[in-house]
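Inverse folding, one chain.
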């Protein structure tokens, strides 16, 4: 009987869910937004996404090989990073600069810190901010989808947030246009309904909890009212919905506890609205998530749960000290 006993360290109960399965769910959740971007912005949206995904996979394979580490391209995390990076770029963005962004995301932000699970900020967001600072002109070269008798035509123009900042209220797209993606913006952030569908899929599958998206979007709405601006407009414009469901919820760069997630999401919403209303940049979603990513270790320390037995032991020790 003793021969059948297996001595093994915990955990003794293991889930069949692995990194590849989680990443595959995220990819599936992003497909509706990708299809909408191709329908709205044309075939180039798909090409840009393929370039980003292919570049991220190649850079991950090459960097892991050069560092003599086990290759991890099969976990699909590089594919997710490539899709998210493409979602944060305008459809007119040059392919060669997108490759530079992929290099920065995978090699600099992810692999130099040890790979998946070791990066302290979201690679796609860090790459977007890097490209915005380094290549500001192509990163703000927007096209606006216009409905015509022949379908959707693309014309140069500003996105809703800059129009608001410039006071051009008459040029603002109506809510239903913004809901279905008929506005200027990065190719993966405009179709709000598709993003909500993908986010709901992730929640139902148990990949993410609703805490961060709900608190983040709720904070944006409440602060919009407090600042005297339109909450619906601020929820439908920019990349706040994309960020709330697909980037702020990243396992590695978001807090581990529910209390921590609430604090994290509140910070994201607050910084987003401060930048949008009072800052020089019209959009603040990427900067807010990047900044809060840096604070995640401190948030985890502040909200770390103490085991029940440890609490009882602490009380007993304090009681003994008091008696002494």
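Residues assigned per position:
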């Amino acid at each position: 009987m003793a021969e059948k006993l297996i001595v093994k360290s915990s955990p003794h109960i293991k889930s069949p869910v692995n990194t590849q399965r989680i990443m595959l769910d995220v990819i599936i959740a992003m497909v509706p937004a990708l299809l909408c971007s191709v329908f709205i912005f044309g075939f180039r949206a798909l090409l840009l996404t393929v370039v980003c995904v292919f570049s991220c996979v190649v850079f991950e394979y090459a960097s892991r090989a050069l560092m003599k580490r086990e290759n991890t391209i099969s976990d699909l995390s590089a594919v997710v990073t490539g899709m998210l990076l493409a979602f944060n770029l305008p459809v007119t963005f040059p392919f060669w600069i997108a490759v530079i962004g992929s290099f920065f995301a995978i090699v600099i932000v992810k692999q130099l810190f040890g790979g998946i699970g070791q990066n302290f900020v979201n690679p796609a967001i860090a790459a977007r901010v890097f490209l915005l600072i380094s290549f500001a002109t192509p990163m703000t070269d927007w096209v606006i989808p216009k409905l015509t008798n022949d379908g959707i035509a693309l014309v140069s123009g500003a996105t809703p947030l800059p129009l608001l900042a410039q006071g051009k209220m008459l040029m603002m797209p109506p809510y239903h246009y913004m809901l279905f993606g008929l506005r200027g913006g990065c190719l993966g952030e405009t179709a709000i309904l598709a993003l909500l569908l993908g986010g709901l899929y992730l929640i139902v599958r148990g990949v993410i909890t609703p805490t961060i998206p709900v608190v983040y979007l709720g904070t944006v709405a409440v602060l919009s009212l407090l600042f005297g601006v339109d909450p619906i407009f601020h929820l439908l414009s920019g990349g706040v919905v994309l960020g709330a469901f697909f980037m702020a919820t990243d396992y590695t760069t978001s807090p581990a506890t529910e209390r921590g997630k609430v604090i994290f999401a509140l910070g994201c919403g607050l910084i987003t609205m401060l930048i949008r209303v009072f800052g020089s940049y019209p959009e603040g979603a990427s900067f807010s998530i990047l900044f809060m990513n840096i604070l995640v270790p401190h948030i985890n320390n502040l909200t770390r749960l103490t085991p029940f037995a440890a609490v009882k032991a602490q009380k007993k020790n304090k009681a003994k000290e008091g008696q002494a």
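The chain has 15 helices and two strands. Residues 151 and 305 are 55 Å apart (CA to CA).
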